[in-house]
Amino acid sequence: MYSAEKLREIINNEIDRRLAQLSARKPEELYAPVKYSLGAGGKRLRPVLLLTSFNLFSDEIEKALPAAIAVEVFHNFTLLHDDIMDKAEMRRNNPTVHVKFSENNAILSGDAMAFLSYQYLAEYHTPQLFDVVDLFTKTALQVCEGQQYDMDFENRMDVTEEEYLEMIRLKTAVLLGCSLKAGALLAGTSGETAQQLYNYGINLGMAFQLQDDWLDTFGNQKDFGKKIGGDILANKKTWLLIKALEKASGQAKTSLTYWLDAKEYAETEKINSIIAVYNELGIKMLGEEKIKFYFNAAEKIVQDLPVSELRKAPLQKFGRSMLGRSV
Amino acid sequence: MYSAEKLREIINNEIDRRLAQLSARKPEELYAPVKYSLGAGGKRLRPVLLLTSFNLFSDEIEKALPAAIAVEVFHNFTLLHDDIMDKAEMRRNNPTVHVKFSENNAILSGDAMAFLSYQYLAEYHTPQLFDVVDLFTKTALQVCEGQQYDMDFENRMDVTEEEYLEMIRLKTAVLLGCSLKAGALLAGTSGETAQQLYNYGINLGMAFQLQDDWLDTFGNQKDFGKKIGGDILANKKTWLLIKALEKASGQAKTSLTYWLDAKEYAETEKINSIIAVYNELGIKMLGEEKIKFYFNAAEKIVQDLPVSELRKAPLQKFGRSMLGRSV
User: Fold this and answer.
1) With an 8 Å Cβ cutoff, are B115 and A115 in contact?
2) Rounded to whole angstroms, how far apart are CA atoms B321 and B327?
3) ipTM of this predicted complex?
4) Which of chain A's residues have a Cβ under 8 Å away from the Cβ of B141?
5) Number of A–B residue contacts, CB under 8 Å
6) Which domains are seen in chain A, by residue range?
7) DSSP state for residue B228 in the 8-state scheme
8) B219: which of A255, A290, B195, B224 fits an S-S bond (Cβ 3.0–4.6 Å)?
9) Quick check: B122 and A104 CB within 8 A?
């Protein structure tokens, strides 16, 4: 049995090994952005979840490595393309691929990463490949759908809570669910248990994304690692803003609308003013409750998993750590 | 046994059926460019090759349809992304996807098409899936590599004939080879015969791309369907230009260099001047010989296929028609 820390070490070594293999491939211009992106680190959440799930049922971790690499490569592919679409200039404290190389490089090397992820998956010549390719492909399409909704929401002021939750389910949660379920399937686990793990990933992913939004507004910069208030300045349709627009009336509504429409302003003043409205409406606590709702649902699923308490401890611990809960 | 015309009709009907299914998927903004691109027609060369190859060994054509759709969807995915990278504004007499919709739409809907092609492939829950996914994924990566070389060549004046041939092999020929081999594999055909069909596709693809370049310079606008001389105006490193640079000396060399460096010029004058150099160097005939070389290699492979003359006639006929040869 492996801890998440040990599994992250295993996955990092495997990524290094695979990147060294890529160095032999030509043309260099195609594979350099792949190495740049995958080599930049990151938390490796998805492969660790996949391996942790696999490890619930089997200790032969090396058998799960190709799929673990596949989900990490896929995730990085989405970052390359999303960063172009979102015009993001920095990622993990480095220039994004389209800034460091070029937009064409980010498109084409991103494409190559999508196919590389299938090349890693296709290393399985076992009957599980059918289910894993089905799951992975369905998930990949859902992630594209989620990104499309996210872009569409930028131009809309009437996004509902339900629409927002569906967007983050598609854009973020399904890939966590897919990673966990793939781990279970590759360990030869039955459909129902694999589905429990998928549902665990969905709830964990929802809590994780909602918390990311919450920290962007209510976190402290040191722990969060990014500047606080970025979502507010960008008028991002987060759960917090959607909920505030839903609940606001009178003076709060006027203030919210004023700041959303404002073209020129001091950044700190806008951030503080919107937070003041959020505080007045109790958005901070409502957000905490929403996160807790998904976190509790995830915890319940782990409790119900048909494996020993000892076996499930690493998954439980890792899920909690993702949400900064006591472990 | 089916003619290529009949198979094209079958594939067009199947594409219509699949597009109707896509209409039910949300968000509409993601799938509209997919329908726009696939619905715009095109010659359907790759799926027709796949079905024709399958039909060498089996008449149960419906079994090959998911893979035939997959290669066509994949091909259209490459067009969406290549057209962004090449800043192409028109395709099949319509605005390209990034012009008609937006660049972000062309990136994301292109991604969705790559995954859709795997979703169609994954409909095979038979052992052939292993080989077909391997082949398809390897091919997809090679196509990315070919596009990267093509872009790199834009900024180089020292591209060799060998490099150029390798680029078009990757960018164009391997997908024809993949289509033909996949058809054979799905019909349950042995490795060696499937490989013969792959090699047939490579030679056909090389001849096809070389002929496309040749027609861009020496064709007539009515038959070619595009304006003559586009490659010359763009200083495109075609086989013709590479060969001319290799053979030119004295006055021919001076003229070629002058026109390649020229910043302002009358288009017709540049086209006619470069063609004059080509004629002086015998490039037109050398190009014809090169096309003929690959065409003959392709013909030879079909002759050697271990199937009856009657069975191989549609493939032979279709291959010849792709190159405008007497059928």
Assistant:
1) no
2) 7
3) 0.96
4) 112, 115-116, 119
5) 107
6) 4-204+296-322 (1.10.600.10)
7) T
8) B224
9) no
**Nearest one of B40, B35, B41, B34 to B106, comparing CA atoms:** B34
Q: What is the pTM (predicted TM-score) of this model?
A: 0.96
**pLDDT tens per residue, chain A (327 residues)?**
999 999 999 999 999 999 999 999 999 999 999 999 999 888 999 999 999 999 999 999 999 999 999 999 999 999 999 999 999 999 988 999 999 999 999 999 999 999 999 999 999 999 999 999 999 999 999 999 999 999 999 989 999 999 999 999 999 999 999 999 999 999 999 899 999 999 999 999 999 999 999 999 999 877 766 788 999 999 999 999 999 999 999 999 999 999 999 999 999 999 999 999 999 999 999 999 999 999 999 999 999 999 999 999 999 999 999 999 865
Cα atoms in the 13 Å half-sphere on the side-chain side of A13 = 8
> Which residue on chain B is closest to A80 by alpha carbon?
B107
Residue A109 one-letter amino acid:
S
Do A206 and A173 touch, CB atoms closer than 8 A?
A: yes
CA distances from B157 to A28, A125, B212, B241, B261 (A): 19, 45, 21, 10, 11
Half-sphere exposure of A146 (CA within 13 A, CB side): 22
Angle at B133 between CA B127 and CA B139, to 5 degrees: 145
Chain A window 149-188: which residues touch B at a Cβ cutoff of 8 Å?
149, 151-152
CB contact under 8 Å between B27 and A145, yes or no, is yes
| Nearest partner of B204 among B324, B117, B124, B305, judged by Cα | B324
**Across the interface, do B108 and A26 touch by the CB < 8 Å criterion?**
no
- Give me the residue from B25, B26, B144 closest to A115, CB to CB: B144
Burial category of A166 from C-beta neighbours within 10 Å (exposed 0-12, middle 13-18, buried 19 and up): middle
Cis peptide before B95 (omega within 30 of 0): no
Q: CB neighbours of A48 closer than 8 A, spacing ≥ 6?
A: A4, A7, A8, A11, A68, A318
- List, in sequence order, the alpha helices (H) in chain A: 4-22, 28-39, 45-55, 65-85, 97-100, 103-121, 128-154, 161-168, 174-186, 191-218, 221-224, 230-233, 239-247, 250-261, 267-281, 283-304, 309-322
Q: CB B141 to CB A115 under 8 A?
A: yes
